[in-house]
Amino acid sequence: MSLMQRISAFLKSPKGQQLVDRGRREMAKPGNQQKLKGLAARLSNRRR
Length: 48
Known about the structure:
Elements: H1 3-12, H2 14-27, H3 30-47
């Protein structure tokens, strides 16, 4: 089984769904969105 198949199977499992839901809840928080935007900005500046 390839890595992508294993990841896909995990994400479809109950444990994987719990992890996805937790990630969505965390990203709904304004503070975490701000941190992610800052990280994306730093990474895009580093590539230039």
